Amino acid sequence: MARKRSYRYKDAGVDIDAANKALDKVKELARKTFTRDVVTSIGSFGAGYRLRGWSNPVLVSSADGVGTKLKVAFLAGRHDTIGEDLVNHCVNDILVQGAIPLFFLDYLSMGKMNPDVVAQIVEGLARGCAANSCALIGGETAEMPGLYSPGEYDLAGFIVGVVERNRLVTGARVVEGDVLLGLPSSGLHTNGYSLARTLLFDVAGYTVDSYVEELGCTVGEELLKVHRSYAKAMAGLLESRLVKSAAHITGGGVTDNLPRVLPEGLGARIRTSAWPVPPIFPFLRKLGRIPLDDYRRTFNLGIGMILVVSPRLQKAAQLVLDRAGESYYQIGEVIRLPEKAKERVIYE
Q1: Is a pLDDT exceeding 80 seen at residue 11?
Q2: What are phi and psi of 155, to 5 degrees?
Q3: What is the mean pLDDT of the segment spanning 126-133?
Q4: Left (φ > 0), alpha (ψ -120 to 50) or beta: where does 231 sit?
Q5: What is the pLDDT of residue 167?
Q6: Number of neighbouring beta carbons within 10 Å of residue 305
Q7: For residue 172, which of 91, 141, 205, 219 sits 20 to 30 Å off, Cα-Cα?
Q8: How far apart are the first and last CA of the chain?
Q9: Taking phi first (over 0 means left), then psi (-120 to 50 degrees means alpha), and beta for anything else, what does residue 226 get?
Q10: 206-255 pLDDT, tens per residue?
Q11: The dihedral of CA 194, 86, 328, 95: what is its sign?
Q12: At residue 1, does pLDDT exceed 60?
């Protein structure tokens, strides 16, 4: 009788040694983001964080990914910015409720463990966390052979922030006539990539290395521009209680995201000529002959965050933004909607 073969985990595609090597780099990078309130080390079964100095705290959490922007990172062979995208996206999601970030966890899974790629991804995560004063406190790196194509992975993030209960930004105080200030995006951020990739790669036949005159850079450089964090811009505004409401402009564009932070019966009038639209957006629209409504619901069109402020406090808000070195545009105002209005955002 033939002797039966002995199988190891590695024979099934899981390399524990490679995973441990990747984890060593993760620990090194994560420790650099730790604040004094982190009470556990990377590698514990659970991550511990000490909450102190708050009288009536509300924890605000969010989870997200970066969508098919990952596909561009795969094509470009560049993985050092995708983690920063993820952190900034999650930070912005809790900022609009007035919360400051405390800690961040990530989930990274790939078919075959590649410690160098893991290190690049975590470098971006650590850089984003450090820039937002947020501790990269833990996460999971999983090797899943057979689930992903070679060279591909998935990445998700989880953030927890805190705000005093009486400083929670809910939009409840928004009234007709309030002013809308738009903060510029760096480009697509992390939304609309399925359509953008189809148009640029499949329709136009570009590669990530193609230089496009209208964009002033290669396709890869344009699509991998980092999703901005608005933490620095909003810090003073939140401290001074100058923001009544705020919307992070992600999937759905202004059309779908701004109504989420306005009371029932109120909408917005948006002046589309009030800000410069980055060239990537009209370039994509021309490539795909995208209908206007779809165009506005797919992309941020150059506005990554909208702040709702009282006209009485508008100058004070603008002064805070000026001091933070943040650009802004007065893009419209809050309006009372007519009965049975079909749309809550009206473009002019």
Answers
A1: no
A2: -140, 130
A3: 96
A4: alpha
A5: 96
A6: 25
A7: 91
A8: 82
A9: beta
A10: 999 999 999 999 999 999 999 999 999 999 999 999 999 999 999 999 99
A11: positive
A12: no
CB 51 within 8 A of CB 57: yes
Residue 96 near residue 159, CB atoms below 8 Å = no
Domains of the chain by start residue, with CATH:
12-167 (3.30.1330.10), 179-347 (3.90.650.10)
Among 251, 29, 210, smallest CA distance to 119 is for 29
Distance, in Å, from the CA atom of 54 to the CA atom of 348, rounded to the nearest integer, reads 44
Structure-token pair, residue 4:
């039966």
Q: At 262, which amino acid appears?
A: L
* Inter-residue contact 74 to 151 (CB < 8 Å): yes
In the structure, what pLDDT confidence band is assigned to residue 267 with cuts at 50, 70 and 90? very high
Q: What letter would DSSP give residue 12?
A: G
8 A C-beta contact, residue 129 and residue 160: no
| C-alpha to C-alpha distance for 134 and 120, rounded to whole angstroms | 19
Residue 19: predicted pLDDT? 62
pTM over 0.85: yes
Per the structure block, which two tokens stand in for 195? Answer: 């359509």
Query: Which tens digits make up the pLDDT trace of 272-307?
Result: 999 999 999 999 999 999 999 999 999 999 999 999
3-state DSSP assignment of residue 185: coil
Pick from 178, 335, 198: nearest CA to 267 = 335
Please enumerate in sequence order all residues whose Cβ is within 8 A of that of 36, keeping only pairs 6 or more positions apart, or say none.
none
Mean pLDDT value of segment 151-176: 96
Burial 127-159 (b: 16+ CB within 10 A, else e): bbbebbebbbbbbebebeeeeeeeeebebbbbb
Strand 135-143 and strand 100-110: pairing?
parallel
Q: Which of 318, 325, 158 is nearest to 243 (CA)?
A: 318
Residue tagged 């603008």 (tokens): 318
Distance CA 98, CA 101 (A): 10
